[in-house]
Amino acid sequence: MRITKNQVSADYRIIILDDEPGIIDSLSVMLKRSGYYYTGTTDPLEAIEMIRDQKFDMLILDYLMYPIHGDKVVERIREFDNEIYILLLTGHKDLAPPLETIKALDIQGYCEKGDKFDQLLLLVESGIKSISQMRTIKKFQDGLNRILQAVPKIYQLQPIGSILEEILTEILSLVRSRDAFILVDDVTNLSSGNNSIFKGIGKYKAEIEDFMEMLDPLLMEQIGNARINGKVVRLEHQVIIPLMNEFMQDIGIIVVEGDNLDDGIKLLEIFASQAGSSISNAFLHSLVNIKNDELNRTYDELRERYMDTIEALRLVVDAKDIYTRGHSDRVAYFAVEIGKVFDLTNNELELLRISGIFHDVGKIGTSDDILFKTEKLNDREYEEIKKHPERGAKILSAISMFKEVVPIVKCHHERVDGRGYPSGLKSDEIPFMARIIAVGDAFDAMLSDRHYRSKLKFNDAMSQLIQGSGTQFDKQVVDAFVSRMSDFEEIIKDELFAYEVKIPTKDI
User: Is pTM beyond 0.70 here?
Assistant: First the structure.
């Protein structure tokens, strides 16, 4: 006689074997209430064949049965299945098999029958936990075996693009995902080392311009966060794994997308460590058989597209508020003009310009309620606004081309007296170019109308800068700014502060 019922969850499949239908019915009520999948039969021989033909996680069986007792049933099952978890029941304590038999047959639980099933339910729940743990261990073992099989493939002599695609393919097999991408720095001597290579799979197997549209600000920020801290970042549907070379230096990231990634994160970390070494090995041994001009085109396009993406975010910040529109362009202009006083090189002036343009990009993650508030910010709101330099630095850290911009953006609100944010740096601890941006930023802010105050007159703004010299601002930078005061005044009288007019950048 066979009794079958399918219940809430098929994650764990339980089979009940007892020659009394009433016992099966009673156990079924208990299992149904707990939400387990179960099937039941009164025939021991049928139960053996069912377990042989199907996959069950747990067997609950009686000891005294016809035509064979429970220990003989288990003995036959163990000939072909050593994994099924077995709970043995008996209504006759004196007739139960000896302890040696229970151990020899690897019977994990033993329980006497009774009117209540509380003890049995505890044994079932304990058994399910053990099964779950064994699944995790097996999954980990299988994953490690796949990693061992995959490692030789990713160390083969082949183009870097093929290596990256192989890495992504193997990674997806570890976590049953379909979508992932990799951003890796070129560490060869083909260039300055500030170029990145992109490869995607699944929905990320796209042209660079389409890929960039998939990078929302939160993801960009968290990619930077993973690279800066060298730690895995877990988002709701994504995992970001930093790639490190054998010297534990950051060389890129892998982003894997999926809904059930938690169990596989450790495997991803292990494989990523091998992937990082294989990528580094490929570069260092000049195994990149892509022509230099093709590489450079790829670099330039990724650089251009990412610049476009950051520029779009920056414009979103500027466009939100008529009072701050054009602010970043003006800060960039002031910073470059100050830099010229210090006889900075063309490359340094270009770095200043880009830093000025992107210095407030982190505000993309600040709520409008805070950005547009007309009254004084409370402590919580002020702490939130203070996060924008670090948030901007993380967004810019996503790919290596902004490596030199990152510390400037992060530190543009530090003060030479140590009372700034986010790190409370002092004097020379603050990057010199960040000290330049700080002056340009503050000056433009003072000459712009804001929600909470009207703009200052030019001379009043200059006085404020001079008063802050040596405390809020670097004295040398303020002196350089003052030396250009007449030039700035003429420009401001022209069209500099008409927000619809973008500042013309002179040749640098």
Answer: no
